[in-house]
Amino acid sequence: xxKAINETVTSDFDITKxxxxxxxxxxxxxxxxxxxxxxxxxxxxxxxxxxxxKQYYERDNSNVHRGIHTLSQRATDQFEAARVTxxxxxxxxxxxxxxFTSGTTESINLVAHSYVRAFLKAGDEVIxxxxxxxSNIVPWQLLEQQxxxxxxxxxxxxxxxxxFEEFKALIGEKTKFVAITQLSNALGTITPVKEIIQAAxxxxxxxxxxxxxxxxxxxxxxxxxxxxxxxxxxHKIFSPTGVGVLYGKRALLDSMPPYKGGGEMIKVVSFSxxxxxxxxxxFEAGTPNIAGVIGMAAGLDYVSxxxxxxxxxxxHDLLEYGTQKLLTIEGLKIIGDAEHKASILSFQIDGVHAxxxxxxxxxxxxxxxxxxxxxxxxxxxFGVEATARASLAFYNTKEDIDALVSAITKxxxxxx
Length: 416
Ligand code: PLP
Known about the structure:
The protein has 416 residues and is α/β, with parallel strands linked by helices. The chain contains 14 helices and 17 strands. The chain has helices at 15-20, 47-60, 70-89, 104-119, 138-147, 164-170, 193-202, 222-225, 250-255, 290-306, 308-326, 354-362, 376-381, 398-415, and strands at 28-29, 32-33, 35-36, 98-101, 125-129, 150-154, 175-181, 206-210, 229-233, 244-248, 266-268, 275-276, 332-334, 344-349, 366-367, 369-371, 387-391. Strand 1 (28-29) and strand 2 (32-33) form a beta hairpin. The chain is globular. The mean pLDDT is 96. The structure holds pyridoxal-5'-phosphate. Residues 103-105, 133, 135-136, 181, 185, 210, 212-213, 233, 374 line the site of pyridoxal-5'-phosphate.
């Protein structure tokens, strides 16, 4: 993060038009224009997504794969078209490798239960990093208790960089699985996932990438990465809550037992034995979040139209601008200054409690997140209980950063 401050931060897209697509951005909080900087927790939704969900409920609402009537056909067609949209968005070889889940958390738990529980045994090692979100820690800890796998933690340094050589040194013949975030929600670190995957594959270990944060900020190509599994949530990429994706390589998905039992995931049910449906349906028991899936396809289309590389460039400049502006505040320390970083500004201010700061910022219309960001181990590593976190999206502007800095300055004066 050493580029000179960029006072202009220009976008290759029409930022005024983009902002007008997001109705929630156009409101006042406590008499101040809303400045929404909590995109790491959840993003706002463009009108295109809201309209799509509304249209589904107003016209097409029905169950999928179950009826021959027109509404059910329409719902099914849109639901399956959404699978192809996701496939293309992450460049998966086949739409059968796209499983709809309720979000990243469920996607990771699916892999924990249907792959790791089924194929690993006591003493086998699963490597995660020291900066994972709880949803990429706890499922593995549960399996540690239940089947005796060993969880191994790959270290980071005090800038928040992933230590690749140290990670490689942990890999050995016992390593059977690696689960790593592509972008840390607490620090903003971008991890070298391609190299991690290559190193894991060299010993035959499979790799899951937690793409919850990365998906909205970097171009994801699961074939170029060669990851075995990739997980993300709709709500982090301008799409509805309660819907997400697990990509898995077809051969692995075929070999895995189902995760949940119920309707939709079966071929034939009988008391003498039940046979399971093909992938992806084998992993989609019960009525899915149909409106969410259809809305997510609209969200991905929106991002594709803007262009993820344009988004990444714009956000990169905004992150540098924000970093340098924040550092002008006396006593402010950025937590996480990795060489490769995106979208997250986590910080602490001497003598100021993060939750007090969050409240005072809210009263000035600024939405940030304060707390441990569901990453308590990384907070412990940095010796802090909580940080304040501003997380960016392409609809944020230099003016948003200026408003944040001026609101922090006011808040600190009030708190001291
Ligand atoms: N992984 C990371 C890196 C995250 O940031 C989050 C959410 O903040 C998750 C996983 C969990 O995502 P969800 O709550 O949408 O399942």
